[in-house]
Amino acid sequence: MQLDPVAIQILWNRLITIVDEAATGLMRTAYTPSVKEYHDFCCALFDADARMLSHSTVTTAGFLGIVPEVLRNFIAKYPPETLRPGDAIITNDPWIASGHLIDISIAAPIFHRGRIVGYTLCIVHHLDMGGRMSTLESKDMYEEGLKIPILKLFDEGRLNETVFDFMRANIRVPDKVLGDVRAQLVANNVCARGLKGLLEEYRLDGLEALAAEVIDRTESSLRRKIAALPDGSYRNVAVLPKVPGCDDEVVVKVDVTVAGDGVTVDYSGSSGEVGAAINCSYNMTRSYTAYPVKLALDPHVPNNDGGLRPIEVIAPEGTIVNSRPPAATWGRTMISHLFPEIVFATMEGIMPESILASNGGSPANEVYLHGRHADGRSFLAIAQHSGGFGASARHDGYACLCFPNNTRNIPVEVTENEARMYYVRKELRTDSGGPGRNRGGLGQDIEFAILDGGNERARDVESSVRLSGRTEDGPFPVFGRLGGRNGRGSGLWHNGGAVDHGIYRRLAPGDRMRFVLSGGGGYGDPFEREPERVLADVEQGYVSFESAAEDYGVVIDGAAMTVDAEATRRLRARGRPPAT
Amino acid sequence: MTDSYRLGIDIGGTFSDFALVDNAGGAIRVGKVLTSAHAPEESVMRGIADLSGAVPGLLGRTSEAIHATTLVTNTILERKGAKTGLLTTEGFRDILEMAREVRYDIYDMFIRLPEPLVPRRLRLGVPERLLADGAVLVPLDEAAVRQAAAVFRDEGVGAVAVSFLHSYRNGAHESRAADILREELPAVTVSLSHEVHPEPKEYERTSTTVLDAYVKAVAEGYLERLAEGLAARGYRERLFVMLSNGGTATVETAKRVPVQIVESGPAAGVEAAAYFGRLAGIDSLLSFDMGGTTAKLCIVENGRAARTRSYEVDRQHRFKSGSGLPAAVPVYDLLEIGAGGGSIARVDDLGLIRVGPDSAGSAPGPACYGLGGAAPTVTDADLALGYLNPDYFLGGRMALDRPAAERAVEGHLSEATGLTVVEAAAGVHEIVNENMAAAARIYVAEKGRAPSELSMVAFGGAGPVHAAGLARKLGCPRLVVPPHSGVMSSLGLLAAPVAFERSRAVRRILEAVDLAAVEAGFRALETEAGELMPDGAASIVRRSVDLRYSGQDYPLEIEVSGPCDTSSTKGDWEALFEALYRSHYGKVDDDNPVELASIRVHVSQPPPALELAPPPAQADAPPKAWRDIHVPAGAGMERAPVYERAALRIGQEIAGPAVIEERESTTVIGPGDRLRVDALGCLVVDLVIHRPAASGDDAGAAPVPAAFGRR
Questions:
Q1: Measuring CA to CA, which of A308, A434, A490, B523 is 20 to 30 A from B137?
Q2: Rounded Cα gap, residues B380 and B366, in angstroms
Q3: C-alpha–C-alpha distance, residues A547 and A552, integer Å
Q4: Which chain A residues are closer than 8 Å to B110 by Cβ?
Q5: Which chain A residues touch B93 with a CB distance below 8 Å?
Q6: How much of chain A, in percent, has pLDDT values that exceed 90?
Q7: Range(s) within chain B of domains with CATH label 3.30.420
Q8: Is the pLDDT of residue B694 over 60?
Q9: pLDDT of residue A575
């Protein structure tokens, strides 16, 4: 078949539409806020050679480098000649799939005119997979929940009840979680139907010609952008925030080498695996390493296998960036979410316009609550809140905007309908945005309290609140860039006393947990920020009068709410405070 | 009902359109006047005065007036609503700004989000707290509400939105706060979240409520003045307003929650396109409505327009959900583009011509209106290209100044670009078409369709002028221009039957539902909806149930018939649901119990009869004139025949290039296009589609897959 640019564009869009419809099917038939609201999932479509062609636009960045490998791993176990129409394959193995047990991957072959023309895959971060769940304390995988080896969940259209029986016996809210697993099957059904419809409609026998165009064009687009960069090697050594329950100091070393039209990112020299639940699988490392390269260089090209080819990621086995079974992995984002800014830091010199200052909510916040309702039913709720977005050469950072992952918050009202708790506050934190010519986005201040279920078994609630662990005075603050100051604010308090994050705590009725998510880093010298913009920030309560004077050198007349130009000139002439 | 009329009134950003249908014979009269931006109701009165010339005592003889307006959307887009304050539960005032904390594009680091309509210093929290079950944890602090009212008063706030957590379960705190606010601030309008959108998810509910508050004073004042003006001129019946999903509401309902009419005008256009599509036997079409300020496209498949409940206003990125302000109201899923006859053309810093999205509107209007506008607009370009007749705009009631249009093009575009007036004007025409095509390609692809499968139904004052060019760019093979295309939205108001939908949440496992109570619920809804219908109107009643597996959010709607009290009712519903679920989602063997989410009643009049008086001519009409028009890819201007649409014979065929003029619009077709007048008087144009010669010069082989051209 001959494909001209118009046909390629239409068919390529259609491939994306198909996976987006699959994602819609998933969301519409899901049972838990984890899928319906949080959106930590992906749907993807592959050709018969297991090359990823399209990826749902609603998704989070952690899947980018993972998805293509998951399907290749599935096919290695179940080669195409062993697959039949109506088959579906499942696993949550962290090294085969997406890096921790709570994510379940389900794939299915797509048959058309008697042969496999492609595959559909759906990965979902579930609400519950048994085990200790959201704690950084687990020493190995066996503490972290039920592991599902690669199995056929459906065999020629017949459900393998044994898989469901095992899951049902091991998790706290099985009806809901199994409902979400069924929603993954819906996503795959919708995707398969969409692809078959496309093939029928355009009278195509397969995707080979289209796949080659999609992947080659994507690859060459990124290669052209890389080729425009100066060749060279750019280094960064990051000492990461202290992880509760882990005595080891974690260091990530990175060497970014631009050579011709390819990039190599080498993590050699990074720390070894640790006995805490923060170890990354290679694919996870690859996802969050390729992501900042795509963001900075080629953001407007859709994601598929081609976009990963120009980026080589080297990560020695046995390190924290390429761990082996049975390392504990639940909180692997404590490390992987930092890769984008570690990579951005190496690019500060060569492409200052294409990077962001650090995000105040990275690594991502995660709140877990489980216990019983008064009637004895188990509940399990998750929540996530974001810190301030990093400023850039172009803009101030937005308040409370997710990065580098991309999940929605779960509404306060939804969580309160699920769990025996209520929020006391969720509001912006004044002065938390890192000062800069462009200011970092504000972080937030959150507090929740436990309600009494009225009987003994419905008293206490188990809860874990995981934060970034970054502090203003620690080794890895929320960095500003090009003279911008660091983001501010962080901490976790149980009934007013500071406590460690990322571990479970038993909360009694009336107990309160408060936590602060930092603002984003600033960009550029804050003394260069126009005084009128500082005044506007003070008017809205984003910045205090004190911070306006101290951080920005702008004096504001509080009665008239105007800039005192003369006093500002004098203050700015006196010089800047020392950089943090 | 002899000697009575139905009246459709559609207020757009630039023009206001009118359609009047005789209840006895179905004969149609139409009208069009410029919209007064400062007081749109005055345009209504002017339009009615015009129609009254032909039908004396018109309003006294009108049995039903239906209204659509773009006032609400424009108020938001232009940020011309009331200065609005927001009252929230203490500790949660920033929910409006935090939104869902997610990026709508995961690859773009520099995305822009819309400014919240309420700045932070006008967002005030007061102590009060309800729990998820509606129980009171903290009683409302009334003194704090009064203090907040004092701040709002000092700030000169004109509207207040009240959105407390869990108010969808218990509206008492919001209602009490509203009482206090009305006492303290009698001149201020108040919107309550449990009335506007009584559903969980605080951000979406708050955003919808804030939008409602922001537009309420403008909408209320306007609708009241409109109703009073009509009454003063003899209208004695109820005034209806079209909702954003093509449904109808009384003016009282629309005033109470004006955010529901945010897409009222465009919905009327879609109704009209679907109506003519049905008559012409076209089941899948692209409706294209281009007026003075914006162009709107909507896919209609199998007679049913695309719908959405996740509507957003003021999207920063046209195609990305999440980039706008959520308005949780049911709407048609339209593509809206800032491109219209009034769109202003300029030369940018790169020396290139740019068109829109800003519009000259009706004041000052295009340069050729002679109302003070100096900047060249799309209409000026169309006039300079010979597409429009300066002496036949609005049937000759408004003279267009062609030299003024040419001067505007020359002064603002030619000098900076070195192009001739015709070249520059042709550039403006081409660029605005390309802007629309680029957006439409993505919109159509997002719906999983190819434009080659769709017929375009074009209307609006500027639609038929640009439709052939746009359809050709998109690859739509056929164009349909219905009669009265220049005022088709107002006709759509009458083509859609008056209809009311009422629903009630049940949220019980089907197994445990008391069917007698459900039957009583259906009857109550039927009575409620029936009372809204115009007096004496016959009505068609449809019942449906929303079913889902218990634990899911999203139900499937199943139409049910007959009383629901037989022993087989539940089994029948469940079987219908499971079959529909399987056809939507495939085989997944769900074993959770089925839940009855809600019951729904839809009451409508029978579809009204419109008598589209077919052209009476017996013989082919000759051109009434010849005029030089610009022919793309041709050598500048070419002589082309100009026809009077009303004089055309059914079955008459015209070969392009040609111009077909009618009072409210003008259809332009290009070389090779073939136009035919169908039995209804629609202009049906088979277009010459230029396939891009991307794969070389093998003209024989279609460069696109063979299947592309089918249908």
A1: A490
A2: 6
A3: 7
A4: 392, 394-395
A5: 427
A6: 88
A7: 264-336+440-495
A8: no
A9: 77
Dist CA B20 CA B64 (whole Å): 10
Interface membership of B585 toward A (CB under 8 Å): yes
pLDDT digit string, tens, across residues A470-526: 999 999 999 999 999 999 999 999 999 999 999 999 999 999 999 999 999 999 999
What is the secondary structure of B443-511 as a DSSP string? HHHHTT--GGG-EEEEESSSHHHHHHHHHHHHT--EEEE-TTGGGHHHHHHHHSPPEEEEEEEEEEEGG
pLDDT confidence tier of residue B404, bands split at 50, 70 and 90:
very high
pLDDT score for B144: 98
Answer yes or no: CATH 3.30.420 is held by domain B264-336+440-495: yes
| Block residue for tokens 């940018």 | B348
Nearest residue to B648 (alpha-carbon basis) of B627, B623, B684: B623
CA-based nearest residue to A126, from A192, A43, A38 = A38
What pLDDT score was predicted for residue B448? Answer: 67
The full set of domain ranges for chain A reads: 5-217, 356-524, 531-574
- Segment (H or E) for A538: helix A531-539
pLDDT score of A121 more than 90 = yes
Interface of B with A in 116-145 (CB under 8 A): 119-121, 129, 131-132, 137
Q: pLDDT grade, residue A577 (50/70/90)?
A: low
Burial of A472 (0-12, 13-18, 19+ CB in 10 A): middle
Q: Hey, what amino acid is at B603?
A: V
Write out chain B residues lying below 8 Å of A31, CB-based: 549, 551-552, 592
Is residue B575 within a helix (H) or strand (E), and if so which, with residue range? helix B569-585
CA atoms of B99 and B88, how far apart (whole Å):
14
Provide CB contacts within 8 A for A508, sequence distance 6+.
Answer: A450, A459, A460
Cis peptide before A85 (omega within 30 of 0): no
Rounded Cα–Cα distance for residues A383 and A404 (Å): 17
CATH fit for domain B77-220, picks 3.40.50, 1.10.1740, 3.30.70, 2.60.290: 3.40.50
Judge if the upstream peptide bond of residue B403 is cis by omega within 30 degrees of 0. Answer: no
